[in-house]
């Protein structure tokens, strides 16, 4: 039987990125999603919740999401899963990107497992399906818990907006197509945590998000 997911958001880096802890209410086994930086704060939140971290998950390779992943993997002794391998070049260049944005200590990182469309990821007794949703970055992925009607969408879609596509590798048409053809069909009742800003539901965004109106 699938567990009941819980989530806690820890805004990190100057970009106020939603680093997210997800865990099972039953087992207290969880994952850290997108540890962009501020690792001491992330570890304090893990202790406060009394959870055991099993892995680190990455939605994509931008500095504010992945800049702290390699060091956190070292600190916790857990593997990294995601994103799609199309973001390898972003993960390789994290030290240079960090220097450009004034973020100290960013390390290049290669995950223990790349993710692709149709893959499955487990976190304790929680199960997530993987969607490859390029456009914000070439290797962006979405984690979907169909049982819990919950998703972690990175910077693919936000409350009232969508991911920016003016960065290298971005493609606006590709992003909108991925949202409309892959993400929205998951169902209006799916609640999601984006990479920045407040949570929402796919139904609310389908009806009100100006970027998704025909």
Automatic annotation (TrEMBL):
InterPro entries for this protein: MBL_Glyoxalase_II, Metallo-B-lactamas, RibonucZ/Hydroxyglut_hydro
Keyword line: Hydrolase, Metal-binding, Zinc
Domain Metallo-beta-lactamase: 16-196
Cofactor section: Zn(2+)
Record's keyword annotation contains Metal-binding: yes
Region (Disordered): 195-214
Matching SMART domains: Lactamase_B
Pfam families: Lactamase_B (PF00753)
Protein name: Hydroxyacylglutathione hydrolase GloC
Species, as recorded: Methylobacterium bullatum
Higher taxonomy: Bacteria, Pseudomonadati, Pseudomonadota, Alphaproteobacteria, Hyphomicrobiales
């Amino acid at each position: 039987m699938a567990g009941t997911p819980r989530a806690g958001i820890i805004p990190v880096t100057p970009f106020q990125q939603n680093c997210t802890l997800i865990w099972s209410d039953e087992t207290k086994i969880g994952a850290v999603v997108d540890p962009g930086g501020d690792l001491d704060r992330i570890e304090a939140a893990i202790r406060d919740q009394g959870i055991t971290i099993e892995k680190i998950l990455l939605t994509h390779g931008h500095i504010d999401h992945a800049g702290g992943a390699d060091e956190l993997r070292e600190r916790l002794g857990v593997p990294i899963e995601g994103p799609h391998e199309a973001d390898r070049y972003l993960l390789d260049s994290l030290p240079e990107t960090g220097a450009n944005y004034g973020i100290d200590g960013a390390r290049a990182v290669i995950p223990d497992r790349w993710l692709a469309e149709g893959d499955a990821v487990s976190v304790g007794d929680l199960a997530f399906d993987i969607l490859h949703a390029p456009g914000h970055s070439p290797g962006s992925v979405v984690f979907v818990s169909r049982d819990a009607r919950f998703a972690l969408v990175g910077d693919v879609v936000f409350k009232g907006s969508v991911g920016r596509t003016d960065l290298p590798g971005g493609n606006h048409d590709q992003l909108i197509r991925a949202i409309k053809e892959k993400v929205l069909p998951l169902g209006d009742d799916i609640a999601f945590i984006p990479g920045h800003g407040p949570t929402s539901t796919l139904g609310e965004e389908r009806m009100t998000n100006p970027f998704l109106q025909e």
